[in-house]
């Protein structure tokens, strides 16, 4: 595993905090992630139930289990990245590098980094219905930046593809500059997004992570 | 990135030709093409080992053909 | 562990992205349903209605998710996962526990859960049930009818086992 220093922010005060961006996560790291996150997930679910929050407003990854994804990290094409701060995993991402190809006309058929899974730790979730503001911010943005760097390191020129949960669509389209390419019947009808080689340039100009 | 080791690879003219064409078409270095091929081969092999089948589907012709993987 | 040196993301770019990240309820990637990774993915359509069946049967008994978890001695998060996740394949023990608390035949429930090959009549009833039911806060009369018809098929196909 290798580590890269990075700064995230406390959500309330917007104060910068030192964190580490790690790559090369091993299957056992995901077991630790799940053990750290599952208690907080249960707490969130109990609060959502107690407060009668409409299910449409529940975080759509509330029921995930990272431990179940651990075996995938044994494959050559899968990589795991995590962000650690205060000695806890604050966000985790898994990518694939061989089994997905670009769909945008300009890049069609070219390899890309497929962002398979990304989630921030449940204590960082902002759930206004529960008065939860979340401890840290910028975690998803930092992990997405790392996916673009990986794509560049692999020689894929920053191309990234992903299927976003409905609650996340505006982040990937407007926040990350990805192009929406329609709903995918094979992927639970989720919207597919792609970052073109051209759109990736802004991430690579100052992001020489070597 | 992970530590890397070097190996020498002997290819026939036809193999080198195919590698060069793929490298150009996929916008990748020749090393990267071979790395992709290995990743994909491992991923396919793992799924076949689990009892899954590999298909190519032609949506326009509504045809589905199983790919033989030994 | 190696410590790498290098330039991080452009701070302004990251902060701009952060504003969009903050405005979303979630920024997760990975499918509405938990991806089970290496588990088999070839299960029948009948299995997809398992979560809805459990949810309806629970509501018919006027149980909260927490009460069902407690009575069945199953983790609360597992019940939530079952009810929210179309692709989940639950643990065998969980299905037995739920069958007991919800008065459903456990062998047929295994089929609906994707843990056993469903009989044709179970698949058929499950599809019919799926077509007639929508997850809502309270069971409507139509949903109650749909649930009762499905459960009737499950029980009838259990006779003679």
Please explain how this structure is put together:
The complex is a heterotrimer of chains A (210), B (70) and C (161). Helix content of chain A is 26%, strand content 29%. Chain A has helices at residues 27-50, 139-153, 169-175, 197-204; strands at residues 2-10, 16-23, 78-85, 88-96, 113-120, 136-137, 160-164, 179-184, 190-195. The longest helix of chain A has 24 residues, at 27-50. Chain B has a two-stranded antiparallel ribbon with strand order 1-2. Helices cover 47% and strands 11% of the residues of chain B. By secondary structure, chain B is mainly alpha-helical. In chain B, helix 1 (13-25) packs across helix 2. In chain B, a hairpin with a 4-residue loop joins strand 1 (55-58) and strand 2. Chain B has helices spanning 13-25, 30-49; strands at 55-58, 63-66. Chain C has a domain at 45-156: 434 Repressor (Amino-terminal Domain). Chain C has helices at residues 11-23, 50-60, 65-72, 76-84, 92-102, 106-112, 120-132, 141-156, and one strand at residues 2-3. The longest helix of chain C has 16 residues, at 141-156. The model of chain C is unreliable at 33-47 (pLDDT under 50). Chains in contact: A-B, A-C, B-C. Chains A and C meet through strand 1, helix 1, strand 5, helix 2 and strand 7 of A and strand 1, helix 1 and helix 4 of C.
């Amino acid at each position: 595993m290798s580590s890269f220093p990075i700064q995230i922010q406390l959500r309330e005060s917007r104060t910068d905090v030192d964190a580490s961006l790690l790559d090369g996560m091993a299957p056992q790291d995901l077991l630790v992630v799940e053990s750290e996150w599952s208690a907080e997930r249960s707490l969130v679910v109990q609060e959502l139930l107690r407060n009668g929050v409409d299910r449409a407003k529940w975080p759509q990854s509330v029921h995930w289990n990272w431990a179940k994804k651990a075996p995938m990290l044994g494959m050559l094409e899968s990589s795991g990245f995590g962000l650690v701060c205060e000695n806890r995993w604050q966000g985790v991402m898994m990518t694939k590098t061989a089994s997905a190809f670009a769909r945008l006309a300009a890049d069609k058929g070219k390899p890309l980094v497929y962002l398979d899974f990304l989630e921030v730790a449940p204590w960082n979730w902002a759930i206004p219905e529960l008065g939860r503001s979340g401890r840290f911010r910028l975690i998803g943005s930092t992990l997405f930046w790392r996916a673009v760097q990986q794509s560049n390191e692999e020689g894929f020129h920053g191309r990234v593809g992903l299927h976003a949960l409905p609650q996340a669509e505006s982040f990937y389209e407007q926040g990350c500059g990805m192009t929406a390419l329609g709903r995918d019947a094979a992927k639970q009808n989720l919207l597919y997004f792609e970052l073109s080689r051209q759109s990736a340039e802004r991430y690579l100009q100052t992001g020489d992570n070597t | 990135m992970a530590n890397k080791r070097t190996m020498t690879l002997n290819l026939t003219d036809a193999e080198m030709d195919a590698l060069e064409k793929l490298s150009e078409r996929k916008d990748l270095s020749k090393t990267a093409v071979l790395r992709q091929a290995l990743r994909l081969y491992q991923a396919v092999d793992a799924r076949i080992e689990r009892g899954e089948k590999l298909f190519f589907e032609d949506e326009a012709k509504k045809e589905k053909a199983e790919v033989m993987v030994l | 562990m190696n410590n790498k040196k290098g330039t991080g993301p452009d701070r302004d770019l990251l902060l701009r992205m952060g504003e969009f990240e903050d405005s979303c309820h979630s920024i997760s990637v990975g499918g509405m349903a938990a991806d089970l990774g290496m588990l088999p993915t070839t299960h029948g359509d009948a299995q997809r209605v398992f979560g809805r069946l459990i949810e309806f049967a629970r509501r018919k008994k006027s149980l909260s998710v927490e009460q069902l978890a407690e009575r069945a001695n199953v983790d609360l998060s597992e019940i939530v996962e079952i009810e929210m996740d179309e692709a989940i394949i639950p643990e065998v023990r969980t299905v037995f526990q739920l069958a007991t608390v919800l008065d459903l035949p456990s062998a047929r429930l295994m089929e609906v859960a994707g843990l056993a090959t469903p009989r044709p009549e179970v698949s058929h009833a499950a599809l019919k049930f799926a077509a007639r039911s929508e997850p809502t806060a309270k069971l409507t009369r139509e949903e109650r009818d749909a649930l009762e018809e499905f459960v009737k098929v499950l029980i009838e196909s259990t006779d003679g086992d």
